[in-house]
Every structure is written in structure tokens, then in C-alpha cells.
Amino acid sequence: MRLDVGRQAKRPSHNERMDTSIPVLTIDGPSGSGKGTISRLVAQQLGWHYLDSGALYRAVGVSAGWANLDLADPAALVRCAFDTEIRFRETPTGDLRIIVNGLDATDELRTETAGAAASAIAAIPEVRTALKERQRDFRCAPGLVADGRDMGTVIFPDASVKVFLTASADERAERRYKQLNGKGVPVTLAGLLREILARDARDAQRAVAPLRPAEDAVRIDTTGLGIDHVVDEVLALVGNRRGAQ
Ligand code: C5P
């Protein structure tokens, strides 16, 4: 997996960025559908770059919190989206660390508070516009796996393969619970389920770039499926598309 990200990465030339011949695999879906894990593993297997677009929204949310910005002040949040410096760094052990304005914010970004702040600011159209080009900058050879909510519908509508992952809300809450509990974060299953349902509703109902599958996306319901099974299914889709070209 290749990680070079955002403003600190070597910025590709305009032509390179617009090079639609660079293949993109989009993996969209609701929180807890397994997007992050599957996308990272698939990117690793393909040797492609990886974009965790949710981390950008979370980083802006966290940065806004640090600056005590009012989540009801869109103009301040839009400025924050333009100004927040976000870098992704892979440690020698293969962990992905996310650096926001020079501080390692990886753990804070994963909290439900950061997720809820991200979801609130992600509903502001100008914030989405502010992050659009930053996301498209990730499209570099040999290819990109982009994970989020609107990767296939808005950011990379010409992606060669589009996947939409789902899973039952109960299973998604359980996965989050195991993940956070394992890290010692104090959460309850019922609380996580409530937050997941509230976030799903807000993401699906917002006016701009609502969470929905692209018309040409392949839907995979991951309820009860193992990670390896889903990774193989996604890799097969990429392989088939390449074979067809
Ligand atoms: O994927 P993740 O849970 O990290 O995303 C956090 C929030 O950021 C989501 O609930 C969603 O509101 C927002 N988001 C978005 N568009 C994306 C990625 C994330 O609106 N492409």
C-alpha cells in the first residue's frame, strides 16, 4: 500500500491528476461496513495508493474542536477545512498514523465524538467542495483505492470498479464495539448502535452527496462474511475489469 497524502505529498502535476487512465477502485458504505479494513488490505494486495476520505472529514472536525469553533458556524468550518494540515504516515510496523496540524491525532480521530463532528461538518456543501481536490490529488499511478461515502458518486465518478459495502446495523455496532473495546475505549453496544443509526440517517438524508450506492456499484453485504472472503471478492472484481479491458 502506498501512502502519500494531501498537501505534504509531492503534488502531481495538473495533467497527472486529471489522468483518468489511472485506475480507481471506490469502496463506499456506511460506518462499520468494513470499508476501512477491506480497502487497506485490497490496496496492499494491489500495491495501489489508499485514500481514507473519512479521516479528512474527521481531521477537520477535530481541528475545529481544538480551535473551539462553533459547529453551527459554516464559514469558520469552511476556513478550517481549507487550513487544516493533514498528513498520513506509515510506521515501520505498518501502522497508519494521522497527523493533524503537526500533532498525531490518530486515536482521537477514531472516537465516536470525532465521527459525529465529521458527520455534522460533512453536511456543509462548501466543506465538501474544500476537500474535493484534496481527495482527487490521491489519484496517482499505479492506482488508487478510495474509501468513503461519495467516492463512486461524486469524487471519482469515472472509477473503473465501484463497490458498495453494507452490513446489518447490529453487526456494524458489534464490530465497532470489539474494535474500541480492544483499544480500551469505554463504550456500550447499545450506545454505539444508537450513534451508528443516527449517523447513517444524517449521512443518507443530507442534501449534498448523500450516502447512496452509485448506479454502477456492485453491492456486497458483509453481514456474517469474513474479511478474507470480502477482500477476495473485491480483488476478483478488479481482476475481471482488467481482464475485460
Ligand atoms: O468513514 P468515517 O466513519 O471515518 O467517516 C466519518 C464521517 O465523515 C461520516 O459519518 C460522514 O459523515 C463523513 N464522510 C463523508 N464523505 C466521505 C467520508 C466521510 O461525508 N467521503
Describe this structure in words.
The chain is an alpha/beta fold. The protein has a single domain, classed as P-loop containing nucleotide triphosphate hydrolases (Rossmann fold). Helix content is 49%, strand content 15%. The protein contains eleven helices and eight strands. The strands form two sheets. A five-stranded parallel β-sheet has the order 2-6-1-7-8. Strands 3-4-5 form a three-stranded antiparallel β-sheet. Strand 4 and strand 5 form a beta hairpin. The chain is globular, with a radius of gyration of 17 Å. It starts with 13 loop residues before the first helix and ends with a helix. The N terminus is likely disordered. Bound molecules: cytidine-5'-monophosphate.
In round numbers, the mean pLDDT is: 89
- Say what the CATH topology is: Rossmann fold
Bound molecules: cytidine-5'-monophosphate
Helical residue percent band: 40-55%
Order of helices and strands: HEHEHHEEEHHHEHEHHEH
Query: How large is the share of residues in beta strands?
Result: 5-15%
Low-confidence stretches: 3-16
Q: How many individual β-strands? A: 8
CATH structural architecture: 3-Layer(aba) Sandwich
Radius of gyration: 17 Å
